Predict the structure.
Amino acid sequence: MSKENLKIGEASKPRFEFRTFGQDFDDAIYRMSRLSVPVPEKVWERESGEIYILSKTNDINNTKIRDGKMDIKTFVQEVDGIEQWNPLMKGEFPMRAVVLKNEVFPAFQVEMPVFDKDEYSLDEFIEMVKTHPDLQAVNVNKHRFGFMVNNTICEYGFVLINGAMVTTINSESTELEDIKKTMSDLGVEAVENINYLQAIKRVIGMIDKPLAN
């Protein structure tokens, strides 16, 4: 079977991803920038403000909101320490109560709130999250820089999690061996794989565990 030639910003079959978070990845970032092939200008540098919805009872569904749109990814499997995630749900606010009841809150794996309206704005949804004992809305601001190494889509970024600054680097691809080679080339093969869901929970204290460094 031929390998898929990935293109940044374009859809592909489900990808595997290595990602980690910490304070000091300067050597890996330098090597990433030097080993990268040219990438489209639109991914050289990107900034975004997002809201992640964290659940105390769920570690397999990753929910974020950006520009009024909700995106939920679900964990599929881990192979050799590298994770695979698939899209679970996409929606836009205002959002119908039936969607929140049948798709969104089941992904949080928490007690279902009472719905007294047919449709909810983003602000109304966030208020529901804030009043739920097992949920927390977290503001995440990302400043990311895109590269491509060994036909894997890579980035490093500076991320503010409720104002706390951390650094992230990643490599994603449909091909596990390409990611492994990239991890080796960047010198991070022994670094813990930490996804966004886990990193945010560690920073806000929902999980009592440090980041990679």
Remarks:
- The first strand starts at residue 16 and ends at 22.
- The two ends are 38 Å apart (CA to CA).
- The beta strands are 16-22, 46-55, 61-66, 69-79, 82-92, 95-96, 119-120, 135-149, 152-161, 164-173.
